[in-house]
Amino acid sequence: MRTALLPLALALSLATWPAGRVGAQDSALPDIGSSAATLITPDQEAKYGSYMLYHLRRQGLILDDPLIDGWLKGMGHRLGAVSDTPRQSYTFFTMRERQINAFATLGGYIGINAGLVLTAENEDEVAGVLSHEIAHVSQRHVLRGVERARKDQLPILLGMLGAVVAAQKAGGSSANDATTAVVTGGSALMMQRQIDYTRSNESEADRIGIQTLHRAGYRVGSMADFFERMHRASRSNSGDYQVPEYLRTHPSTTTRISETRERAERLGDAASNALSVSGSSHPLLPGRFALPEGPLWRDDMQFGWARERLRVLSADSAATALAEYDAMARAKGATATLDDAQRYGRALAQLGAGKAREAEAGFEALLQKHPDDVWLALGRAEATHSSGRSAQARERFEALLQRHPDHRALRLVYARVLNEIGNREAGVRAQAVLRPLLASSAEDPLFQRSFARASELAGDLGRAGEAYAEAAFLSGRPVDALNQLDALKKRADVDYYQRARIEARIAAITPIVLEMERQGLDAEDQPADRG
Protein backbone atom coordinates (compact mmCIF):
# COMPACT_ATOMS: atom_id res chain seq x y z
CA MET A 1 0.00 0.00 0.00
CA ARG A 2 2.87 2.34 0.83
CA THR A 3 4.35 1.84 -2.64
CA ALA A 4 1.07 2.40 -4.44
CA LEU A 5 0.35 5.62 -2.52
CA LEU A 6 3.67 7.28 -3.28
CA PRO A 7 2.83 8.51 -6.81
CA LEU A 8 -0.55 9.71 -5.54
CA ALA A 9 1.06 11.42 -2.57
CA LEU A 10 3.49 13.16 -4.89
CA ALA A 11 0.66 14.34 -7.13
CA LEU A 12 -1.41 15.56 -4.20
CA SER A 13 1.51 17.37 -2.61
CA LEU A 14 2.27 19.06 -5.91
CA ALA A 15 -1.15 20.63 -5.76
CA THR A 16 0.18 23.06 -3.15
CA TRP A 17 3.87 23.14 -4.13
CA PRO A 18 5.41 26.19 -5.79
CA ALA A 19 6.64 25.80 -9.31
CA GLY A 20 10.30 25.28 -8.43
CA ARG A 21 13.55 27.15 -8.09
CA VAL A 22 13.64 28.89 -11.45
CA GLY A 23 13.06 32.37 -10.02
CA ALA A 24 10.87 34.53 -7.85
CA GLN A 25 8.51 35.27 -10.73
CA ASP A 26 7.82 31.52 -11.09
CA SER A 27 7.25 30.83 -7.40
CA ALA A 28 3.49 30.19 -7.63
CA LEU A 29 1.36 27.80 -9.66
CA PRO A 30 -1.19 29.27 -12.09
CA ASP A 31 -4.87 29.68 -11.24
CA ILE A 32 -6.96 26.54 -10.81
CA GLY A 33 -8.69 27.01 -14.12
CA SER A 34 -5.46 26.92 -16.14
CA SER A 35 -4.56 24.09 -18.49
CA ALA A 36 -2.66 21.20 -16.91
CA ALA A 37 0.14 21.74 -19.42
CA THR A 38 0.88 25.14 -17.89
CA LEU A 39 1.06 24.00 -14.27
CA ILE A 40 4.82 23.41 -14.30
CA THR A 41 7.58 23.35 -16.89
CA PRO A 42 9.17 20.11 -18.18
CA ASP A 43 12.31 20.94 -16.20
CA GLN A 44 10.27 21.27 -13.00
CA GLU A 45 8.47 18.01 -13.78
CA ALA A 46 11.84 16.26 -14.02
CA LYS A 47 12.93 17.72 -10.69
CA TYR A 48 9.77 16.56 -8.92
CA GLY A 49 10.16 13.11 -10.48
CA SER A 50 13.75 12.92 -9.29
CA TYR A 51 12.68 13.88 -5.74
CA MET A 52 10.30 10.93 -5.76
CA LEU A 53 13.03 8.56 -6.95
CA TYR A 54 15.43 9.81 -4.24
CA HIS A 55 12.75 9.17 -1.62
CA LEU A 56 12.06 5.66 -2.90
CA ARG A 57 15.76 4.85 -2.84
CA ARG A 58 16.17 6.14 0.68
CA GLN A 59 13.30 3.91 1.79
CA GLY A 60 15.06 0.89 0.22
CA LEU A 61 12.20 0.28 -2.24
CA ILE A 62 14.23 0.45 -5.46
CA LEU A 63 15.85 -2.70 -6.80
CA ASP A 64 19.16 -1.57 -8.35
CA ASP A 65 20.70 -4.39 -10.37
CA PRO A 66 22.79 -3.76 -13.50
CA LEU A 67 21.40 -6.69 -15.50
CA ILE A 68 17.77 -5.96 -14.64
CA ASP A 69 18.31 -2.24 -15.24
CA GLY A 70 19.83 -2.90 -18.66
CA TRP A 71 16.99 -5.21 -19.68
CA LEU A 72 14.22 -2.87 -18.48
CA LYS A 73 15.78 0.31 -19.88
CA GLY A 74 16.48 -1.34 -23.23
CA MET A 75 12.82 -2.32 -23.53
CA GLY A 76 11.56 1.02 -22.20
CA HIS A 77 13.71 3.18 -24.46
CA ARG A 78 12.75 1.14 -27.55
CA LEU A 79 9.13 1.91 -26.73
CA GLY A 80 9.79 5.54 -25.82
CA ALA A 81 11.64 6.13 -29.11
CA VAL A 82 8.53 5.22 -31.14
CA SER A 83 5.98 6.79 -28.78
CA ASP A 84 4.02 9.98 -29.48
CA THR A 85 6.70 11.93 -27.57
CA PRO A 86 10.05 10.45 -28.70
CA ARG A 87 11.97 13.44 -27.35
CA GLN A 88 10.60 12.95 -23.83
CA SER A 89 13.23 11.79 -21.35
CA TYR A 90 12.14 8.56 -19.63
CA THR A 91 13.56 7.02 -16.48
CA PHE A 92 12.61 3.37 -15.90
CA PHE A 93 13.19 1.63 -12.58
CA THR A 94 12.18 -1.51 -10.71
CA MET A 95 10.54 -1.73 -7.28
CA ARG A 96 11.25 -4.65 -4.94
CA GLU A 97 7.57 -5.21 -4.14
CA ARG A 98 5.91 -8.42 -5.29
CA GLN A 99 2.52 -6.81 -5.62
CA ILE A 100 1.50 -6.46 -9.26
CA ASN A 101 1.79 -2.77 -9.99
CA ALA A 102 3.22 -0.15 -12.34
CA PHE A 103 2.94 3.62 -12.40
CA ALA A 104 4.05 6.73 -14.25
CA THR A 105 4.67 10.09 -12.67
CA LEU A 106 6.04 13.54 -13.48
CA GLY A 107 9.10 13.90 -15.66
CA GLY A 108 8.69 10.56 -17.44
CA TYR A 109 9.57 8.46 -14.37
CA ILE A 110 8.05 5.00 -14.82
CA GLY A 111 8.30 2.24 -12.22
CA ILE A 112 7.26 -1.40 -12.31
CA ASN A 113 7.07 -3.81 -9.40
CA ALA A 114 8.99 -7.08 -9.46
CA GLY A 115 5.64 -8.84 -9.00
CA LEU A 116 4.43 -7.62 -12.38
CA VAL A 117 7.35 -9.26 -14.19
CA LEU A 118 6.95 -12.43 -12.12
CA THR A 119 3.31 -12.62 -13.23
CA ALA A 120 3.94 -11.91 -16.94
CA GLU A 121 4.38 -14.86 -19.27
CA ASN A 122 6.61 -13.13 -21.81
CA GLU A 123 8.41 -9.86 -22.52
CA ASP A 124 5.58 -8.65 -24.78
CA GLU A 125 3.26 -8.47 -21.78
CA VAL A 126 5.71 -6.37 -19.78
CA ALA A 127 6.19 -4.16 -22.84
CA GLY A 128 2.40 -3.79 -23.03
CA VAL A 129 2.29 -2.41 -19.50
CA LEU A 130 5.26 -0.09 -20.17
CA SER A 131 3.69 1.24 -23.38
CA HIS A 132 0.49 1.94 -21.44
CA GLU A 133 2.44 3.91 -18.80
CA ILE A 134 4.41 5.75 -21.49
CA ALA A 135 1.07 6.83 -22.97
CA HIS A 136 0.07 8.28 -19.58
CA VAL A 137 3.23 10.40 -19.77
CA SER A 138 2.83 11.44 -23.41
CA GLN A 139 -0.80 12.47 -22.86
CA ARG A 140 0.12 14.35 -19.67
CA HIS A 141 -2.41 12.41 -17.60
CA VAL A 142 -0.33 12.89 -14.46
CA LEU A 143 -0.49 16.67 -14.75
CA ARG A 144 -4.22 16.51 -15.39
CA GLY A 145 -4.49 14.51 -12.18
CA VAL A 146 -2.47 17.14 -10.33
CA GLU A 147 -4.84 19.83 -11.59
CA ARG A 148 -7.89 17.90 -10.39
CA ALA A 149 -6.26 17.00 -7.07
CA ARG A 150 -5.60 20.69 -6.53
CA LYS A 151 -9.31 21.41 -6.93
CA ASP A 152 -10.36 18.59 -4.58
CA GLN A 153 -7.70 18.82 -1.89
CA LEU A 154 -8.68 21.98 -0.03
CA PRO A 155 -12.36 21.17 0.76
CA ILE A 156 -11.48 17.57 1.67
CA LEU A 157 -8.63 18.66 3.96
CA LEU A 158 -10.82 21.34 5.60
CA GLY A 159 -13.48 18.71 6.27
CA MET A 160 -10.86 16.35 7.73
CA LEU A 161 -9.50 19.13 9.96
CA GLY A 162 -12.96 19.98 11.34
CA ALA A 163 -13.69 16.34 12.06
CA VAL A 164 -10.32 15.83 13.76
CA VAL A 165 -10.89 18.88 16.00
CA ALA A 166 -14.36 17.62 16.93
CA ALA A 167 -13.00 14.15 17.72
CA GLN A 168 -10.24 15.54 19.94
CA LYS A 169 -12.64 17.87 21.79
CA ALA A 170 -14.85 14.89 22.55
CA GLY A 171 -11.93 13.36 24.46
CA GLY A 172 -12.13 9.92 25.98
CA SER A 173 -10.34 6.73 25.04
CA SER A 174 -11.89 6.69 21.59
CA ALA A 175 -10.60 10.12 20.53
CA ASN A 176 -7.41 8.86 18.94
CA ASP A 177 -9.28 6.06 17.18
CA ALA A 178 -11.78 8.57 15.84
CA THR A 179 -9.00 10.84 14.61
CA THR A 180 -7.30 7.96 12.82
CA ALA A 181 -10.58 6.95 11.20
CA VAL A 182 -11.24 10.49 9.99
CA VAL A 183 -7.76 10.90 8.51
CA THR A 184 -7.95 7.49 6.88
CA GLY A 185 -11.39 8.24 5.49
CA GLY A 186 -10.32 11.62 4.12
CA SER A 187 -7.19 10.15 2.56
CA ALA A 188 -9.28 7.38 1.01
CA LEU A 189 -11.66 9.95 -0.45
CA MET A 190 -8.80 11.91 -2.02
CA MET A 191 -7.36 8.67 -3.35
CA GLN A 192 -10.71 7.59 -4.78
CA ARG A 193 -11.17 10.98 -6.51
CA GLN A 194 -7.73 10.54 -8.08
CA ILE A 195 -8.51 6.95 -9.08
CA ASP A 196 -11.81 7.91 -10.69
CA TYR A 197 -10.02 10.54 -12.72
CA THR A 198 -7.26 8.11 -13.68
CA ARG A 199 -9.80 5.59 -14.95
CA SER A 200 -11.21 8.17 -17.34
CA ASN A 201 -7.80 8.18 -19.08
CA GLU A 202 -7.28 4.42 -19.25
CA SER A 203 -8.92 3.94 -22.64
CA GLU A 204 -6.75 6.64 -24.18
CA ALA A 205 -3.60 5.11 -22.66
CA ASP A 206 -4.63 1.68 -23.99
CA ARG A 207 -5.25 2.98 -27.51
CA ILE A 208 -2.00 4.96 -27.75
CA GLY A 209 -0.03 2.30 -25.91
CA ILE A 210 -1.06 -0.39 -28.41
CA GLN A 211 0.12 1.81 -31.28
CA THR A 212 3.48 2.26 -29.53
CA LEU A 213 3.70 -1.48 -28.89
CA HIS A 214 3.03 -2.19 -32.58
CA ARG A 215 5.62 0.31 -33.82
CA ALA A 216 8.23 -1.22 -31.49
CA GLY A 217 7.65 -4.67 -32.99
CA TYR A 218 5.98 -6.34 -30.00
CA ARG A 219 2.93 -8.57 -30.22
CA VAL A 220 0.05 -6.14 -29.72
CA GLY A 221 -2.34 -8.78 -28.38
CA SER A 222 -0.10 -9.14 -25.32
CA MET A 223 -1.67 -6.11 -23.63
CA ALA A 224 -5.10 -7.74 -23.68
CA ASP A 225 -3.56 -11.04 -22.55
CA PHE A 226 -2.16 -9.39 -19.44
CA PHE A 227 -5.39 -7.52 -18.66
CA GLU A 228 -7.34 -10.75 -19.03
CA ARG A 229 -5.06 -12.57 -16.61
CA MET A 230 -5.46 -9.73 -14.12
CA HIS A 231 -9.23 -9.90 -14.56
CA ARG A 232 -9.24 -13.64 -13.82
CA ALA A 233 -7.02 -13.07 -10.80
CA SER A 234 -9.42 -10.43 -9.45
CA ARG A 235 -12.23 -13.00 -9.47
CA SER A 236 -10.23 -15.57 -7.56
CA ASN A 237 -8.66 -15.69 -4.12
CA SER A 238 -5.92 -18.04 -5.30
CA GLY A 239 -2.51 -17.17 -6.74
CA ASP A 240 0.97 -16.45 -5.47
CA TYR A 241 0.86 -12.67 -5.69
CA GLN A 242 -1.63 -10.04 -4.56
CA VAL A 243 -3.20 -7.96 -7.33
CA PRO A 244 -5.40 -5.24 -5.77
CA GLU A 245 -2.95 -2.35 -6.21
CA TYR A 246 -2.67 -2.80 -9.98
CA LEU A 247 -6.37 -3.40 -10.45
CA ARG A 248 -7.27 -0.37 -8.34
CA THR A 249 -5.70 1.99 -10.86
CA HIS A 250 -5.84 -0.27 -13.94
CA PRO A 251 -9.33 -1.84 -13.90
CA SER A 252 -9.46 -4.87 -16.21
CA THR A 253 -13.15 -5.03 -17.11
CA THR A 254 -14.44 -7.33 -19.82
CA THR A 255 -15.30 -4.25 -21.91
CA ARG A 256 -11.75 -2.95 -21.67
CA ILE A 257 -10.30 -6.35 -22.57
CA SER A 258 -12.55 -6.70 -25.62
CA GLU A 259 -11.77 -3.16 -26.78
CA THR A 260 -8.05 -3.81 -26.41
CA ARG A 261 -8.31 -7.03 -28.41
CA GLU A 262 -10.30 -5.27 -31.12
CA ARG A 263 -7.65 -2.57 -31.44
CA ALA A 264 -4.91 -5.22 -31.60
CA GLU A 265 -6.73 -7.05 -34.38
CA ARG A 266 -7.09 -3.84 -36.38
CA LEU A 267 -3.37 -3.13 -36.11
CA GLY A 268 -2.47 -6.72 -36.89
CA ASP A 269 -0.22 -8.94 -34.84
CA ALA A 270 3.37 -7.68 -34.73
CA ALA A 271 4.50 -11.18 -35.67
CA SER A 272 3.19 -10.56 -39.18
CA ASN A 273 5.50 -7.60 -39.57
CA ALA A 274 8.25 -7.85 -42.21
CA LEU A 275 10.96 -8.44 -39.62
CA SER A 276 9.05 -11.35 -38.15
CA VAL A 277 7.96 -13.43 -41.13
CA SER A 278 10.00 -16.40 -42.24
CA GLY A 279 12.16 -16.02 -45.32
CA SER A 280 10.33 -18.78 -47.17
CA SER A 281 7.16 -16.69 -47.35
CA HIS A 282 8.74 -13.24 -47.80
CA PRO A 283 8.27 -12.03 -51.39
CA LEU A 284 11.59 -10.12 -51.46
CA LEU A 285 13.81 -13.01 -50.32
CA PRO A 286 14.89 -16.13 -52.25
CA GLY A 287 13.55 -19.34 -50.80
CA ARG A 288 16.89 -20.47 -49.42
CA PHE A 289 17.12 -17.38 -47.16
CA ALA A 290 15.18 -17.01 -43.94
CA LEU A 291 14.83 -14.31 -41.32
CA PRO A 292 14.62 -15.32 -37.65
CA GLU A 293 11.25 -15.30 -35.98
CA GLY A 294 10.46 -12.06 -34.13
CA PRO A 295 12.20 -8.69 -34.30
CA LEU A 296 15.93 -8.90 -34.93
CA TRP A 297 16.81 -7.38 -31.52
CA ARG A 298 14.71 -9.81 -29.51
CA ASP A 299 16.25 -12.39 -27.20
CA ASP A 300 13.25 -14.26 -25.81
CA MET A 301 15.42 -16.23 -23.37
CA GLN A 302 16.54 -12.99 -21.72
CA PHE A 303 13.04 -12.39 -20.39
CA GLY A 304 13.26 -15.72 -18.56
CA TRP A 305 16.62 -14.80 -17.04
CA ALA A 306 15.25 -11.39 -15.98
CA ARG A 307 12.10 -12.81 -14.43
CA GLU A 308 13.96 -15.41 -12.37
CA ARG A 309 16.64 -12.94 -11.37
CA LEU A 310 13.87 -10.70 -10.07
CA ARG A 311 12.36 -13.64 -8.21
CA VAL A 312 15.64 -14.14 -6.34
CA LEU A 313 16.40 -10.46 -5.73
CA SER A 314 12.88 -9.65 -4.52
CA ALA A 315 12.72 -12.60 -2.12
CA ASP A 316 13.21 -11.97 1.60
CA SER A 317 16.45 -13.96 1.44
CA ALA A 318 18.36 -16.33 -0.81
CA ALA A 319 17.17 -19.21 1.38
CA THR A 320 13.57 -18.13 0.79
CA ALA A 321 14.19 -18.05 -2.96
CA LEU A 322 15.70 -21.55 -2.82
CA ALA A 323 12.60 -22.75 -1.02
CA GLU A 324 10.47 -21.32 -3.83
CA TYR A 325 12.43 -23.30 -6.42
CA ASP A 326 12.19 -26.43 -4.28
CA ALA A 327 8.42 -25.95 -4.21
CA MET A 328 8.36 -25.52 -8.00
CA ALA A 329 10.39 -28.69 -8.43
CA ARG A 330 8.08 -30.67 -6.14
CA ALA A 331 5.07 -29.40 -8.05
CA LYS A 332 6.64 -30.64 -11.29
CA GLY A 333 7.76 -33.93 -9.83
CA ALA A 334 11.56 -33.58 -10.01
CA THR A 335 14.28 -30.92 -9.98
CA ALA A 336 15.27 -31.83 -13.53
CA THR A 337 11.89 -30.64 -14.78
CA LEU A 338 12.60 -27.01 -13.90
CA ASP A 339 12.94 -25.04 -17.13
CA ASP A 340 16.21 -23.32 -18.06
CA ALA A 341 15.17 -19.93 -16.68
CA GLN A 342 14.16 -21.49 -13.35
CA ARG A 343 17.44 -23.40 -13.21
CA TYR A 344 19.23 -20.06 -13.70
CA GLY A 345 17.24 -18.59 -10.83
CA ARG A 346 18.01 -21.58 -8.65
CA ALA A 347 21.74 -21.18 -9.34
CA LEU A 348 21.50 -17.49 -8.40
CA ALA A 349 19.74 -18.39 -5.17
CA GLN A 350 22.43 -20.99 -4.40
CA LEU A 351 25.09 -18.35 -5.00
CA GLY A 352 23.34 -15.96 -2.63
CA ALA A 353 22.96 -18.69 -0.03
CA GLY A 354 26.71 -19.40 0.02
CA LYS A 355 26.54 -22.57 -2.11
CA ALA A 356 29.00 -21.27 -4.70
CA ARG A 357 30.19 -24.68 -6.00
CA GLU A 358 26.63 -25.86 -6.63
CA ALA A 359 25.81 -22.54 -8.30
CA GLU A 360 28.87 -22.77 -10.55
CA ALA A 361 27.87 -26.26 -11.64
CA GLY A 362 24.38 -25.00 -12.44
CA PHE A 363 25.69 -22.14 -14.59
CA GLU A 364 28.14 -24.50 -16.32
CA ALA A 365 25.33 -26.87 -17.29
CA LEU A 366 23.24 -24.02 -18.69
CA LEU A 367 26.19 -22.63 -20.66
CA GLN A 368 26.48 -25.98 -22.41
CA LYS A 369 23.01 -25.35 -23.76
CA HIS A 370 23.28 -21.57 -24.20
CA PRO A 371 26.94 -20.89 -25.04
CA ASP A 372 28.21 -17.30 -24.86
CA ASP A 373 25.14 -16.07 -22.98
CA VAL A 374 26.39 -13.09 -20.97
CA TRP A 375 23.93 -13.51 -18.08
CA LEU A 376 25.01 -17.12 -17.57
CA ALA A 377 28.72 -16.39 -18.06
CA LEU A 378 28.54 -13.56 -15.51
CA GLY A 379 26.85 -15.87 -13.01
CA ARG A 380 29.52 -18.52 -13.50
CA ALA A 381 32.36 -15.99 -13.07
CA GLU A 382 30.76 -14.65 -9.86
CA ALA A 383 30.34 -18.19 -8.55
CA THR A 384 34.00 -18.95 -9.34
CA HIS A 385 35.03 -15.88 -7.33
CA SER A 386 32.74 -16.79 -4.43
CA SER A 387 34.17 -20.32 -4.32
CA GLY A 388 37.60 -18.84 -3.54
CA ARG A 389 39.20 -19.01 -7.00
CA SER A 390 39.54 -15.29 -7.61
CA ALA A 391 42.38 -15.60 -10.14
CA GLN A 392 40.34 -17.89 -12.36
CA ALA A 393 37.30 -15.64 -11.90
CA ARG A 394 39.32 -12.64 -13.08
CA GLU A 395 40.45 -14.57 -16.15
CA ARG A 396 36.83 -15.29 -16.97
CA PHE A 397 35.79 -11.67 -16.46
CA GLU A 398 38.67 -10.39 -18.60
CA ALA A 399 37.74 -12.80 -21.40
CA LEU A 400 34.14 -11.62 -21.24
CA LEU A 401 35.26 -8.00 -21.33
CA GLN A 402 37.27 -8.70 -24.45
CA ARG A 403 34.20 -10.12 -26.19
CA HIS A 404 31.71 -7.57 -24.84
CA PRO A 405 33.58 -4.30 -24.21
CA ASP A 406 30.38 -2.20 -24.30
CA HIS A 407 28.37 -4.33 -21.88
CA ARG A 408 27.53 -2.01 -18.97
CA ALA A 409 26.35 -4.69 -16.52
CA LEU A 410 29.49 -6.74 -17.15
CA ARG A 411 31.70 -3.80 -16.17
CA LEU A 412 29.68 -3.09 -13.03
CA VAL A 413 29.64 -6.73 -11.89
CA TYR A 414 33.36 -7.18 -12.59
CA ALA A 415 34.19 -3.98 -10.69
CA ARG A 416 32.15 -5.19 -7.72
CA VAL A 417 34.11 -8.46 -7.66
CA LEU A 418 37.41 -6.55 -7.87
CA ASN A 419 36.29 -4.35 -4.99
CA GLU A 420 35.53 -7.47 -2.96
CA ILE A 421 39.10 -8.69 -3.58
CA GLY A 422 40.02 -5.49 -1.78
CA ASN A 423 43.67 -4.81 -2.56
CA ARG A 424 45.21 -1.79 -4.28
CA GLU A 425 45.91 -3.60 -7.58
CA ALA A 426 42.28 -4.75 -7.77
CA GLY A 427 41.12 -1.19 -7.01
CA VAL A 428 43.24 0.25 -9.82
CA ARG A 429 41.83 -2.32 -12.24
CA ALA A 430 38.27 -1.65 -11.05
CA GLN A 431 38.79 2.07 -11.72
CA ALA A 432 39.95 1.26 -15.25
CA VAL A 433 36.99 -1.08 -15.82
CA LEU A 434 34.52 1.57 -14.67
CA ARG A 435 36.11 4.64 -16.28
CA PRO A 436 34.37 4.18 -19.69
CA LEU A 437 31.03 4.50 -17.87
CA LEU A 438 31.85 7.82 -16.17
CA ALA A 439 30.16 10.05 -18.75
CA SER A 440 26.91 8.07 -18.78
CA SER A 441 26.63 7.23 -15.09
CA ALA A 442 26.44 10.55 -13.28
CA GLU A 443 22.98 9.68 -11.90
CA ASP A 444 23.57 5.99 -11.16
CA PRO A 445 24.12 5.36 -7.42
CA LEU A 446 25.24 1.79 -8.09
CA PHE A 447 28.05 3.06 -10.31
CA GLN A 448 28.99 5.85 -7.91
CA ARG A 449 29.31 3.47 -4.95
CA SER A 450 31.43 1.07 -6.97
CA PHE A 451 33.67 3.81 -8.37
CA ALA A 452 34.06 5.30 -4.89
CA ARG A 453 35.23 2.00 -3.43
CA ALA A 454 37.56 1.34 -6.36
CA SER A 455 39.11 4.81 -5.98
CA GLU A 456 39.47 4.29 -2.25
CA LEU A 457 41.32 1.00 -2.77
CA ALA A 458 43.51 2.61 -5.43
CA GLY A 459 44.52 5.39 -3.02
CA ASP A 460 42.68 8.09 -4.98
CA LEU A 461 40.89 9.44 -1.92
CA GLY A 462 39.74 12.69 -3.51
CA ARG A 463 37.84 10.94 -6.29
CA ALA A 464 36.57 8.42 -3.75
CA GLY A 465 35.15 11.21 -1.60
CA GLU A 466 33.38 12.83 -4.56
CA ALA A 467 31.83 9.55 -5.64
CA TYR A 468 30.71 8.64 -2.11
CA ALA A 469 29.04 12.04 -1.81
CA GLU A 470 27.32 11.60 -5.17
CA ALA A 471 26.09 8.15 -4.14
CA ALA A 472 24.65 9.65 -0.94
CA PHE A 473 22.86 12.37 -2.92
CA LEU A 474 21.42 9.90 -5.44
CA SER A 475 20.28 7.65 -2.60
CA GLY A 476 18.12 10.40 -1.14
CA ARG A 477 20.56 11.87 1.41
CA PRO A 478 21.46 15.31 0.03
CA VAL A 479 22.44 16.78 3.42
CA ASP A 480 24.86 13.91 3.95
CA ALA A 481 26.25 14.59 0.45
CA LEU A 482 26.78 18.27 1.29
CA ASN A 483 28.57 17.40 4.55
CA GLN A 484 30.89 15.00 2.75
CA LEU A 485 31.68 17.52 0.01
CA ASP A 486 32.29 20.29 2.54
CA ALA A 487 34.77 18.11 4.45
CA LEU A 488 36.42 17.00 1.22
CA LYS A 489 37.11 20.51 -0.11
CA LYS A 490 39.01 21.33 3.12
CA ARG A 491 41.52 18.51 2.60
CA ALA A 492 45.08 19.67 1.95
CA ASP A 493 45.59 17.12 -0.85
CA VAL A 494 42.69 18.44 -2.97
CA ASP A 495 44.02 20.41 -5.94
CA TYR A 496 42.59 23.60 -7.43
CA TYR A 497 40.59 21.88 -10.18
CA GLN A 498 39.04 19.30 -7.90
CA ARG A 499 38.16 21.97 -5.32
CA ALA A 500 36.43 23.96 -8.07
CA ARG A 501 34.51 20.86 -9.12
CA ILE A 502 33.47 20.18 -5.50
CA GLU A 503 32.34 23.76 -4.96
CA ALA A 504 30.28 23.64 -8.15
CA ARG A 505 28.57 20.48 -6.94
CA ILE A 506 27.86 22.05 -3.53
CA ALA A 507 26.33 25.02 -5.32
CA ALA A 508 24.10 22.68 -7.34
CA ILE A 509 22.92 20.54 -4.41
CA THR A 510 22.33 23.31 -1.85
CA PRO A 511 19.23 24.80 -3.55
CA ILE A 512 17.77 21.30 -3.86
CA VAL A 513 18.16 20.72 -0.11
CA LEU A 514 16.62 24.11 0.69
CA GLU A 515 13.69 23.46 -1.65
CA MET A 516 13.08 19.96 -0.28
CA GLU A 517 13.11 21.28 3.30
CA ARG A 518 10.80 24.17 2.38
CA GLN A 519 8.34 21.77 0.79
CA GLY A 520 8.36 19.48 3.83
CA LEU A 521 10.40 16.69 2.22
CA ASP A 522 12.75 15.02 4.66
CA ALA A 523 16.32 16.03 3.73
CA GLU A 524 17.82 15.20 7.11
CA ASP A 525 21.39 14.10 7.57
CA GLN A 526 22.03 10.35 7.65
CA PRO A 527 25.13 8.17 8.00
CA ALA A 528 27.62 8.40 5.16
CA ASP A 529 27.40 5.89 2.32
CA ARG A 530 30.46 3.66 2.35
CA GLY A 531 29.74 0.96 -0.25
Question: Strands, helices and their partners?
Answer:
Blueprint: H1 2-14, H2 42-58, H3 66-81, E1 91-95, E2 102-105, E3 109-113, H4 114-119, H5 123-138, H6 141-170, H7 175-215, H8 222-234, H9 244-249, H10 254-267, H11 300-314, H12 318-332, H13 340-352, H14 356-369, H15 374-386, H16 390-403, H17 408-421, H18 424-434, H19 445-458, H20 461-474, H21 478-489, H22 496-518
Parallel strand pairs: 1-3
Antiparallel strand pairs: 2-3
Describe this structure in words.
By secondary structure, this protein is an all-alpha fold. It is 65% helix and 3% strand. It contains 22 helices and 3 strands. The chain has a 3-stranded mixed β-sheet with strand order 1-3-2, with helices on both faces. β2 (102-105) and β3 form a beta hairpin. α5 packs across α7 (175-215) and α19 runs antiparallel to α20 (461-474). The radius of gyration is 25 Å and the shape is globular. 41% of the residues are buried. Mean pLDDT is 78; it is low at 1-34, 189-197, 237-244, 269-285, 289-293 and 525-531.
